[in-house]
Amino acid sequence: HADAAMYKSKERGRNTFHFYEHGITERAMRRLQLESRLRRAFDDRTLQVHYQPLVRLDTGHICGAEALLRWNDPEAGAIPPDHFIALAEDTGLIVPIGEWVVGEACEALKRWETEILLPADFALHVNLSGKQLLQKDLPTRLSDAFTRAGVSPARVVLELTESSIMESEATGVAVMTALREFGVEIAIDDFGTGHSSLSRLKLLPISELKIDRSFIRDIAVDSDDAAIVQAILALSAKLGLGVIAEGVEHAEQEAFLMQHGCLRAQGYRYARPMPEDELIRLLVDAPSLALRETVDTD
Ligand code: C2E
Ligand code: MG
Ligand code: MG
Ligand code: MG
């Protein structure tokens, strides 16, 4: 195709511009269509929130769940967050959608607290966009959401990426500080992939790090990744921060993490993101997800 396009551009000269422009227009059109479909999905309340368990490796119990947005379009089917979160951020839609996710997740947490005996350390994780951090009234809005749902902020962890914190500058840090003041915890998501300096990290009002899954993937075979993860674990211990490994899929990764003192993990090895009713069943039926190979099944 590249060859064909180049050939065309040599042959037709000025037409190249139209050819190129046409491509841009089509892309912009598709974005606009996606945006209006997303807006409609949100208005119609057809977006959903799924939950992925977080697991405590030494005991195997579910010590939390991360709320993850799901969009099932009637025509296109399941559209992954990686395809629409950026668009929602560009258009500002992420602000009402993100707030809706917090509300949904808190109402779900309230049901779990009422219907089942949750482990004492169970934490509900919710992703926040950097755009939300720029709202000065975010702390009051979230605190209102917790009050309305009847959940304690101490059970909630807000996940922010390094880049969204960096982009939101001083406002973001002030908002994070206010959030911590009323009792929520804050985790840095995808840790290691952003550009935060360690001196900046020290000043952030955060409580834990989530090690990006790109470092976990080859942890058992790649000595560089192993060294990076060990360094992050040492850093979090020294700074008094909690730590969670993302994207754990295999027993070897789990063994490495346990051996190096990482006690919490999330990944397909334990469970995929699932609808609320499935999580409830899992919490009731199979409270131990880790260390499965050590279970004596006869
Ligand atoms: P994230 O916050 O880092 O969420 C973890 C992502 O890793 C999820 O992808 C999850 O399904 C995936 N994952 C978990 N375990 C494994 C594993 O073992 N292997 C692999 N390959 N993947 C695993 P998902 O649900 O597609 O979400 C992608 C991203 O979209 C999230 O990354 C988050 O940045 C964003 N996102 C999702 N929901 C929301 C939301 O409500 N608000 C905002 N602002 N962002 C959201
Ligand atoms: Mg996350
Ligand atoms: Mg992550
Ligand atoms: Mg991510």
UniProtKB/TrEMBL annotation:
GO CC, alphabetical: plasma membrane
GO molecular function, one term: nucleotide binding
Domain EAL: 31-287
Keyword annotations from UniProtKB, A to Z: Cell inner membrane, Cell membrane, Membrane, Nucleotide-binding, Repeat, Signal, Transferase, Transmembrane, Transmembrane helix
Protein location: Cell inner membrane
Entry annotated with the keyword Transferase: yes
Major localization listed first in the record, in broad terms: membrane
Source organism superkingdom: Bacteria
Protein's name in the database: Putative diguanylate cyclase/phosphodiesterase (GGDEF & EAL domains) with PAS/PAC sensor(S)
Organism: Thiobacillus denitrificans (strain ATCC 25259 / T1)
